[in-house]
Design brief:
Length: 764
Amino acid sequence: MTPETWHGPIARDLVGDNAPSVRSGDDPALYGSAVIEPLEPAEVRSHRTFVLRYTAGKLGLDDTGAIRVAFRMVTDAGKPQTDDPAKAGYVTATCTGGGRIVLSIGPHGQRPWNRTVTAQLRGGYLSEGDTITIVFGDTSQGSPGMLMQTFAEGGYELRVSTDVQATGNFLPLDEQFSLPVVAGKAAVWKAVLPTLRRPGEPFHLGLKAEDAWGNPTNIASGQIELVPSLKVEGLPAPFAYAPSDRSVVIEGLTVQEEGVLTIKMLVDGQEAAEAGPLVIKASNVAGFWGDLHGQTGETVGVNSIESYFDFARNKAFLEVSAHQGNDFQINTKFWAKLNDITAEVDEPGRFTVFPGYEWSGNTAIGGDHNVFFRTEGRQIRRCSHALLEDRSEMDTDAHTLTDLYRSLEEEDCVIYAHVGGRYANIHYDHDARLETAVEVHSAWGTFEWILTDGFPLGRRVGVVANSDGHKGRPGASYPGSSEFGAYGGLTCFLTNRNDRDAIFEAQRRRHHYATTGCRMHMDVSVEIPGGGTLFERNPDAVPDTPTHAVGKAMMGDIVQTAADEVEVSFEVLAHAGIERIELRNGTEVLEVLRPYGTADLGNRVRVVWGGAEYRGRGRDTSWRGRAAFSEAMITGFETINQWNQERLLQQAGVHGVVFDTITTGNFTGFDAWLEGEGGTLDIATGLGDMSLNVDDIGLEDQVLEAGGLERKLRVFRLPGERLGREIKATRTVKLSEAGDNPLWICVTTEDGYQAWSSPVYLFR
């Protein structure tokens, strides 16, 4: 795919939206025409001015009639405003003919076009040929212009509609107006490897430069030298970085000997990034990274389906992907195109792609669930036709989750429970044959509860994370400056090869783990004294599932055993220092492991806060406040998970930190390196205050509980130097006699990422 394939707006007949079903006539000349200038490429977070000139058609425009300009809901561009001519986003309007123009700003449209500017005529009328001129970002009185969004887009569209007869029925004009929004200059370099391969097994290395908002950019150059820790066959000699489209992928690399591979990326002789760790070892499985959940401009997001899969493979360097549009917005034509494209880009052995969609029923009837088909050409079973004018497939709808399960019982598919705007209601229904996993993290936040709420119900599901990004950037989905408050997640599938059959089997056996967006190596296994019986499928749902006598289980396995206790072993190698690993049995934390102890603690104090308001759409929690050290001085300062650069989180003087941030189940915060002893740390927030003696801050968390859903602020001490990146451990775990023992780990890294293994489900 070339960059040109995704420039321009999405074809209207592919977008599931509800245009007016009636019109005054079919001749476009009746409604007038428009021109918008200039439509030249705009850099992310720059300011631009657009001038729209509308010319009335044969019907003219009646008193209280209007034209409307709509922008897609998925944007973090600055909002238009009419109140302050010196501030960004100032909009003005004038007209010829009689009357005057009154502007109104608001969400007057409907999904996905619900950011609107309406120019209504009052006190007169327009005849054919009269004009309305709207200036978006009018700089004549000091405004810098319209603030562009933080993410690149092939066709940032301004949709113009008219209500020429003052009926309140806005009809889109035939013309489509759009401009490219392009990445800025390079701010950071990235080098990406997978995390687990066998000796001699091929892998790829991805290289790119990203701008300050995470967009891969062509505005980067330099002499690249790659320095590996092991001998890599196929690694190129030094070369000039000049990508044709924002990244470089080096395919077909191999390492013949066991070991841990990292590759340092030098740019003009200076280390700019490090890829890895990639563990090379003889194993029954390799690890293949995927993001299976995102949307594009054909539904509620932006950018095209073609650019989406190109980004996944060649910009985020994924090995597994899928598209998941809201079903009530997937029209018949786009469903057919999506299936054509997944068949085209699926590349067994390198890039596995599934057709699928997001069943988007309300939480009351089951909530969001992701559906992935093994093959193309399957019937989409929508929750409704809420935004679809074509009613020809209404009899195929599955209105409740129970209906969905029933309609898919003979299909070759798997389902994930998802937490988005409509969170999955795991108490409503569950089909263990189809629903293999729950999504614990996405751009919407972090949701361990979607897994742990299921333990008392006897659910045996795996753990996945995806982006649910709406910006067309699967696998590297930054939240920008929008309501999405977290970086998108990733899933590592553990299987012997990368194709649809193998990935489906990994899903059905829960052989995978999830992260909040990093790539780390994780291995979790359980030695079972006396052995046990492994079930290939959940025996509660598939009583005749094949079984095997085993003495060892891997993550995701379901095993019945007579053993009283087992040996849990885990190995984690991360891209950054490991802050902690929690070993858990269900919701109980059995032990917290760290690569350091009390004697290693230094002058670094970590303050983090997180959680959510509640499970639903309005889960965002605002954390505003200040932290102040009364005596010790801050000599070093780093933020943690500060994804939105325009939210306040910074050092204030030598004693303080100020913040105004959002969490959505995830966490954010800072590290402060201190000089001096004694005194207090006083933290004031709108959700509660805490005061600690600095000398009393140690290894264990000191916690301020702040209500809501797992909402809390934590303070603890760390070593002053960087933490170790590897932990290997074995622990004896006593099994409960009743019910399941879901044994799993949660990893937190020094730079704020998290990862979760799918549980090993042991029962007596």
